[in-house]
Amino acid sequence: MKRLDTTLYGNRWKSFAFFIALILALPFFVHEPHLFTILTLIGLYSVITVGLSLLLGYAGQISLGHAAFFGIGAYVSGILTTKTAISPWLVIILGMVATFLLAYIIGIPILKLKGHFLALATVGLNIIVYVLIVGLSDITGGPLGLQGIPKLSLLGIDLGDPLYFYYFIWTIVVLVTFVSTNIVRSHVGRLLKSIGDSEIATQTLGVNVAKYKVSIFALSAAYASLAGSLYAHFISFIAPPTFNVHFSIILLIMVMIGGVHSIWGAILGTALIMFLQELIKFVGDTYFQISGPIENVVYGLIVIIVMIFMPRGLISILSLGWNRLKPNKVKISAKEERNLT
Questions:
Q1: Cα-atom radius of gyration of the chain, to the nearest Å?
Q2: What pLDDT is attached to residue 231?
Q3: How many whole angstroms separate alpha carbon 209 and alpha carbon 114?
Q4: pLDDT band per the 50, 70, 90 thresholds, residue 285
Q5: Mean per-residue pLDDT, 87-104
Q6: With 280 labelled, which of 9, 194, 216, 236 sits at a CA distance of 20 to 30 A?
Q7: CA angle 275, 281, 282 (to 5 degrees)
Q8: Greatest CA span in the chain, whole angstroms?
Q9: Which residues share a beta bridge with 153?
Q10: What pLDDT was estimated at residue 1?
Q11: Is 45 helix (H, G, I), strand (E, B) or coil?
Q12: Which own/partner contact pairs does 17-22 have at CB distance under 8 Å and 24+ positions apart?
């Protein structure tokens, strides 16, 4: 099954240049504090969904438990920075390393499963982490949450300032995207695509499929841990509901809506779902007073519509539009267009 290129059929450096220009420009047009916070959260969640795109879109391994790794990063940073004098930056790195190793060890038995069995196993992992967060109340704060997490500072710059943190988190997104697109374009990326298409065929070529699956699972978990740590320092308060299975499902929906086989699609899907979530809350609270249930209904309908009419995600529509605007740059066949949509 043909996958979308990470550059929307254009030069990858043009894609990065446009992306960076958009990030730099947005603060000049967005002045409402809540909306600015949403833009920052889109960046935080994009770090997770980019990792999920590598895992699901390229390696073909589904995960409904990445909120657990998000939570591990958040609580490692929250606990160690509130109870010890360790540098937050060192704690963030320790959290990523610990999450990577934990995911690698857990991934060895879990990733032997396939399909819905693998999905259920990752749900179970998420539930275990959630129960531990709630149960270890002396350490985690339990249901009441953990507060007083310090803001970050870098080279004398106070990242507690929303504008500085916005630019910081989107710099992280650019770096994560750059690393991930290079993985996709490398020999490893080609192997991951092969695994996603057919594990058996890849094994016949002498490839250690299990090693690559576990490695990409652990890498995506480390991405989630990084996002969790930064989230904890951004919000200064964390509580168990943020890291339940429902959030794992939302992350998966973000990737599917944007385009499961595209790194850029993961970021697009994250932005769309976040803005849609705010719109649903506004309409539901204003007119119906039932925003929570409405959100779940709308998400379900969107997933059904996208899977039927745009199985390659919304990024495929942008790709085709880009191709038609640049007819002399790139040509794709009618058959390839059908594959994309």
A1: 20
A2: 96
A3: 13
A4: low
A5: 95
A6: 236
A7: 90
A8: 64
A9: 158
A10: 42
A11: helix
A12: 19/174, 19/177, 20/174
pLDDT at 34: 87
Q: Give 305-317 as a DSSP string.
A: HHHHH-TT-HHHH
Any idea which residue has 């595209």 for tokens? 262
**What are the start-end ranges of the E strands in the chain?**
146-147, 153-154, 157-158, 237-238
Per residue in 206-241, pLDDT tens? Answer: 888 889 999 999 999 999 999 999 999 999 999 999
DSSP 2: P
C-alpha to C-alpha distance for 208 and 141, rounded to whole angstroms = 42
| pTM of the full structure | 0.87
Between 171 and 202, the higher pLDDT residue: 171
Alpha carbon distance 68, 215 (integer Å):
17
DSSP 224-281: HHHHHHHHHHHHSEE-GGGGSHHHHHHHHHHHHHH-TT-HHHHHHHHHHHHHHHHHHH
- The CA–CA distances, whole Å, from 199 to 61, 91, 184 equal 11, 37, 17
Strand partners, 154: 157
Task: Give the whole-angstrom CA distance, residue 263 versus residue 269.
Answer: 10
Burial code (b: 16+ CB inside 10 Å, e: under 16) for 42-63 equals bbbbbbbbbbbbbbbbbbbbbb
- Which single residue is written with the structure tokens 């529509």? 317
**DSSP three-state, residue 4:** coil
Indicate the angle between helix axes 162-185 and 209-235, nearest 10 degrees. 170
Region of poorest pLDDT, from 84-98, 197-211, 288-302? 288-302
Residues 321, 330: Cα–Cα separation, whole Å: 12
Q: Which residues, listed in sequence order, are joined to residue 147 by a DSSP beta bridge?
A: 237
In angstroms, the first-to-last Cα distance of the chain is 12
**Which range has the worst mean pLDDT, 145-149, 151-155, 197-201?**
197-201
Measure the CA–CA gap between 218 and 240, rounded to whole angstroms.
22
Phi, psi of 154 (to 5 degrees): -135, 120
Report the alpha-carbon distance of residue 219 to residue 103 in Å, rounded: 8
Cα 58 to its chain centre, rounded Å, is: 14
